[in-house]
Structures are given as C-alpha cells and as structure tokens.
Amino acid sequence: MIRRLLRDCAYVLPGLPIAVFGFSLLVTLTAAAIVTAPLWIGALLLPATLTVASGFAELSRRRLRLWGAVPEPVVYRRRGAGVAGVMRLLGDPRRWLDLIFEAIIALPVRLVTFVIAVLWIALGPAAITYFFWSRFIPGERGLIQLLDLIAPALVPATDTGRYLLDSGVFFTVGVIVLVTLPAVMHGLAWMDALLATSLLGSGGRGRLPDGGIVAPGIEPAVDPVVGPEAASGAPAERASGASFSAQAWSWMGAVFAAVVLLAVGWPVTAAVYEVNVAIAMILTVAHSGALVLTLRHSWSGIGLSVVASAAMMGATAESEVSVWPWPVTAMLAQCGVLLVAALRQRWYVAASGWAASALLTGAAVVATAPEVPGGVLSTAIVFASVSAGVVLLGALTRQWILNAGRLQASEQASAQQTRRRRELEERNRIARELHDVVAHSMSVISVQSATAAYRVPDIGKEAQREFEEIARSSRQALGEMRMLLGILRGDDDVPTAPTPGLGDIEQLVEDTRASGVTIHVDGFAELPEVPSAAGLAAYRLVQEALSNALRHAPGSTVAVTASVEAGELQLTVSNTAPPASDAAPSPGAGLGLEGIEERVSAVGGVVESGPTPEGGFCVEARLPLE
Predict the structure, then answer these.
(1) Which residues lie below 8 Å from residue 212, measured CB to CB, with a gap of 6+?
(2) For 208-244, what is each residue's pLDDT tens digit?
(3) Helices 2-12 and 106-128 sit at what angle, rounded to 10 degrees?
C-alpha cells in the first residue's frame, strides 16, 4: 500500500508543473505562429509547435507507463526531407490532437488533481496536530462557533471541555483523512490516467494497472487512418485501431461543444429573447443534447434538433429581436448537428436534416407573411446558406477521410503481401535445404536397406528382417519429411494427412518391437473415444518415450499402460534398468522430454518424468478428455 501511495504521489504531484510549463510554451508558440502567419514565419513555427506538443504527449505516455498504465502505441506520419517534409507535419491529425490535449485539457485536469492531492496530504497531519498549534490561535475556534449556532446544548461550558471537544473532532478527522489518503490518491491518479490513456492512446484504448481496458463503448463512425482490420477485409468506415483515438476525441469534442452551447445559449435565450428561464433551459438542453445524440443515433439526433428548433422558434416569436427565426446559438447548434451527421453517416442523412431545417425555416417565413421583416428573411437566407455549406464541408471531409483510409489500407495490404512473400521465400529455401540433405539421405538409406538382400546374397534371415524394418521405417520417415516439405513450401493450401491417435499406438509398439526390445502393453483395448488433440498428444508421448528407452536404456524392458480415471486419460511409459552387458546408451540433447511437456500442456494435461528407485525411468501423463 505504501509503494502504491508513493507511486500515485509521484504521478499526480509532478503533473501540474509539467502541465503549466507545457501550457505556457505551447500557447506562446501557437500565438506566435498565428501572429507571424502573414509573414510566412508562422508556417514554419507551427510545425515546430506540433513537434513540441508531441514531445509533451510522449512525456505523458512515459509517465503513464511508469505509473503502470499501458496506452496503445500511436503512429505519427513520417517527416520528409526539406521544407515540404516539415510542412507535412501540419497534415498529421495525431499531432494536432496532442497539441489540444497538452495545451487545453491537461492543465485544468491536473490542476484539480494536484489541489485535491495537496489538500488531502496536508489536512491529515494538520488536523491531528490541531491540539498543539490551535493553542496559539487567539479567539474562539471555528468548530465551537459552528456548534453554538447548530446545537448549543452540545458545547461544554468550560474552556477545557471546549478545547478537548475541538481537538478530539479534528483528531478524528485527521485520522480519517490519513486512512483514506491511499484510496484518494489512487483515485486521483486513476482518473488522470483514464483520461490520458483514452486521449493519448491509439484507438482510445489502453490498459490500467488493475487490468481494466480503457475503451469508449461507441465505435467511431469514421477513422481518419484505417487500422489493421481494414487490411484484412474490414470495411474502411468501421475500421478501428487508428493512429489516434477517434472515439474518445469525437465524444469529448461533441460533449464540449454541447456544454459551451448550453452555457451560452441558455442565458442568451432567456435574457435577449425574454423567454422564461425554465423554458429556455429545457429548449437549450434539448438542442445541445441533440448534438451528442447525433454522434450515436444520427436520425434521432436530427429529429430532436428539428423539434427543439421548432419549439425555439415558437418561444422566441414574440420577441422584438430581428435575428429570428434562428437565434445565433440555435443556428450554431443546428449547424453542429448537421456537421456531426455529415461526418457520421452518408451524405443523404445530413442532407435530410438540412432539408427539414430549411422547410422549418420556410414555414416560419411564411408565418410572418404578408409583411416579412427584413431581419427574418436575411436570417433565413444566412441559415440556409451556412448550413448547406456545413453539410457540404462535412460530406467532403468524410469522403476525404475514407479515401485516405482506403489508401493506407491498400499500403498495409501491399506491405503484408510483401512480408508474406519474403516469408514464403525463406520457407522455400529451408525446404530446399531439407530436401537436398535430409530427404536425400533418407532415400539412400531406404534404397540400401531394401536392396541389401540382392547386393549381399549370403545375408541371414534375421539380418534380412532387420533391413526390411529399416527400409519400412525410412520410407515412413521419408513420407513424413515430404509432408513437412509441402507445408513449408505451401502458403495457404497446405497438404494434409490423417493425424495419428490412440488407435495407432499398438502399431507403433509393434514396429518398435521389431528392433528387439521387449514391450508390455496394457489397457488400450478398454479405452473410450478421446478427442483427436488428446489422441495425437498421447501418440507422440508414447513415441518419444519409446525412442528414449531405446536410446538411453538399450536392452531394458518397457511397459506401456493406459487407463481412464476421473475424466482423464492416464498414460505411463516406464522401462527397467538396462543390463550392464548391453551396449552403451546413446547421448541425447534433452529436447525430447521438453517436447512431451509442450504437447501435453497444449491440451491441458500434465506430465511427470524421472528415474525410478530400481534404476529405470518412468514418464507419466494425465490428459483431460473434455
């Protein structure tokens, strides 16, 4: 708990100084770039401002990682050479979002968390030591004065009693503050990290130290940069994993605009147009809320905005203000709704909203006939033209974004195809090496063992059988090698063959007995049907265990047993100690048992192996049947 408290303090407390420094520097650079824009100096100063903002954003990401949060990595557009390469930074939306976060959002958030953290840290010791330093403060204590006003009967009559009551209450408050300090600091750090991870991570996603995933619940309608899903066939409009968190920024921008419109529109409607305060609040909340609703449900948001606009026209119709039927705040809110709809959906959705708003405006103009005031007509024309331009701008921006996403998806698909082609070339090279070396040697062994009887006429029958077994085993290994070569050379359509299972273990034992080893088998006849994955793992386990017994304990007796207990397949392969008179064991690399453990664990089983008290070796495995 103490380590977590120190980690939270180390994350929260330095945040404000960094945010103040970043705010001062970025605002100064941005203002200088705007002022010097007519002299073309700002055109070079603004890319530098974006680069500095990205540097502060990367510092925030590193602070997040040190604290324990893991924001998804972001991708910046590459800077080219020369002045054109520098100017290319202006077209990177990720850098602009870094500038907005570091220059606008970070300072108020970190100011709040810093103030709360400092007050909470200082309040505990101050309240606990109140009994000491309060004696040096002249006059009546604040708590006693408050009790005199609320419950005079609770205030002791003597000064000592009043002092003890005052000190006891403050001591209790100090203890509570100190006890809750770790939770409060962690909550402040968590809220700061949640916002920073959402806005600075790619796709609005990240992982907090408690394992939670930061991901806004609404997918972005349009991502300016299409992610890996689009390269694999996903529609460009629904692709996620963008180089910046479009989800978080779109929602945050919509909510921010709605709050600003509400804060401005409510007093303007109530004061300028002389509308009842409650009615003005309801209409403004509905119009501002339509902006956020359009981001999720475009048709519902447009419908709500049209209804709110009609109600606003009716509520302000009796006003003598010439800016009617669209108050400026209502006009801005309606244009915001149409812009969000144009970016969110296809063009006809925003066009339908504009047509409904234009019809509503026309109805308001007709309602003032036959003498239409000049201010009404000019306001209607301004709204119709401005809102049409907003819809056109949003539709063109959306199309540009989609085209940019498709272009990047095409580049990613091309890069993926190039990578797959290089991998296939490397696999073909490995396959050629295996074919030229291993497969050729196995073919020679197979041919020599099969023709031994013809090349050596006086060979014995026992030796002939040994050569036949060698020829059969080499042909089987050569077939498996050819299948492996086909897999290496193939891309998607690889050759397949039936995988061995429990039913093939008896044949495996018979083939191994041909080498002269004594093998006892028990329990395989009573086994039920098992999943193919468990059967393959069991076959490879027995195969490797028998191979180890032949190499490391020549001349020993091997026992292979199988049974089913508690829904698990029990397999045991053990061998006795090898006779001293037999050949020396062959050395091994020790990779066989590791392979057995990997295969068994892959199907959820466990394996144990080790020497037996009698000097042999035993391998036991338990494979789940479900």
Answers:
(1) none
(2) 565 444 433 323 333 333 333 333 333 333 333 333 4
(3) 130
